[in-house]
């Protein structure tokens, strides 16, 4: 099923936006997930939040690479803190909406967005005025009480 929610991300940012522009290639997922993990760590989020952010970034960037952007086309990863919490956005050049398929025990692919829905505060898609779309997820994240401010 299509995500069913063409919505913008939570209102924000209440903190500046950090962005990474990638060329669509197999290594884009790794670069995207490390960028998001480093950002969450630098902002003082706990280890679980960092790993969830890493997993969500991996899924969204992989989807952009595999389904929405041709070789070398631009994929942009953006992260920021909104009033609702940290938001991860992945922009790609395709207007085609992502599909969330139901979870089952036999599929070997196609379940990533359903998993993103389970481990985040929600996800959605928003068309971009410049063309393409932004897929966003509200990360459930906790600050590390031992992290330096």
TrEMBL record:
Residues 23-116 form the Histidine kinase/HSP90-like ATPase domain. The keyword Nucleotide-binding applies. One of its GO terms (molecular function) is ATP binding. Keywords: ATP-binding, Kinase, Nucleotide-binding, Serine/threonine-protein kinase, Transferase. It comes from the Bacteria. This is ATP-binding protein. It comes from Actinomadura parmotrematis.
């Amino acid at each position: 099923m299509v995500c069913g929610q063409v919505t913008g991300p939570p209102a924000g940012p209440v903190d500046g936006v950090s962005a990474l522009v990638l060329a669509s290639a197999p290594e884009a997922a790794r670069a995207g997930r490390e960028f998001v993990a480093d950002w969450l760590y630098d902002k003082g989020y706990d280890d679980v939040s960092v790993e969830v952010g890493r997993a969500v970034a991996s899924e969204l960037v992989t989807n952009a690479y595999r389904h929405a952007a041709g070789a070398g086309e631009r994929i942009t990863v953006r992260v920021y803190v909104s009033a609702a919490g940290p938001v991860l956005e992945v922009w790609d050049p395709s207007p085609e909406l992502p599909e969330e398929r139901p979870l089952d025990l036999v599929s070997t692919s196609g379940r990533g967005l359903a998993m993103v829905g389970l481990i985040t505060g929600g996800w959605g898609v928003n068309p971009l005025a410049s063309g393409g779309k932004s897929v966003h997820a509200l990360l459930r994240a906790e600050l590390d009480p031992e992290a330096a401010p």
